[in-house]
Amino acid sequence: MIKRKLLGQHFLNSKEIAESIVSEAKITKNDIVLEIGTGLGILTPLLCKKAKKIISVDADQNLIKKARIEFSDFENLVLKSGDGFKTKDSFSIFVSNLPYSKSKDAIEWLAQCSFSHGIIMVQKEFAEKLVAKSKNRRAISIIATYAFDIEKISNVRKNNFSPPPKVDSVILKITKKDNMDKKLISTINEIFSYRRKTVKNILKQFNKETVIEKRVDDLTGDEIVNLAKQILK
Ligand SMILES: C[S@@+](CC[C@H](N)C(=O)[O-])C[C@H]1O[C@@H](n2cnc3c(N)ncnc32)[C@H](O)[C@@H]1O
């Protein structure tokens, strides 16, 4: 039970939704797809039918053991147990019903990976955070909107999962715009810990100078990324 909670094991039980996720991923026979969270494998065989190769990773060894038996006929499927967000393999398309507690880490990790696009399922509140504007923005909103074009595909009610989570979910399409590195991402997070200060005072913390008296909330996303780049120079 504890493991289930920690790993966000709420399994999708709607074949129809699984098919729509795979269809939205626009996979061709040239694509290598990374799926994080094999789970009970509702998406995995559908992905195998479309792509050149699937790498499907789950942190739960038992689920990978089961999938190895159930999907042994698919020659284009590579199943791995472990932390999917440490994957070093290259991929062109990302597909994941994300473990909810890992959603922020997943976006930060994906911002550093080179790929074309992805279909992700996240909690409704997290999806809103990603595209939040002005004072509702967080560091993750700046990172996500700099790294990706984000398009909402559909809402998914919690009763489409077993066991059902407490909240509803949203399917998003993320299309890669810009790669970011780890230092840039952590500097943007650091800037947000000083969000009530002026740019002038934030730069002072890093022994840099400017005359800009604006606060973080008054900057555009690009201006915040440029401020982080200036700090890192
Ligand atoms: C929300 S479930 C989705 C499972 C399946 N794709 C589905 O749609 O039913 C999330 C899955 O991610 C796995 N998981 C959690 N943390 C992980 C990690 N760091 N790396 C890989 N898989 C992880 C869980 O064990 C679980 O199977």
Characterise the protein shown here.
By secondary structure, the chain is of the alpha/beta class. It has 2 domains: 178 residues, 3-Layer(aba) Sandwich (Rossmann fold); 49 residues, no CATH class. It is 38% helix and 21% strand. It contains 10 helices and 9 strands. The strands form 2 sheets. The chain has a 7-stranded mixed sheet. A two-stranded antiparallel sheet has the order 1-8. Helix 5 links the parallel strand 5 and strand 6. Helix 7 runs antiparallel to helix 8. The longest helix is centred in the last third of the chain and has 12 residues. The mean pLDDT is 95. The structure holds S-adenosylmethionine. Keywords: Methyltransferase, RNA-binding, S-adenosyl-L-methionine, Transferase. One of its GO terms (molecular function) is rRNA (adenine-N6,N6-)-dimethyltransferase activity. This is Ribosomal RNA adenine methylase transferase. Belongs to the class I-like SAM-binding methyltransferase superfamily. rRNA adenine N(6)-methyltransferase family.
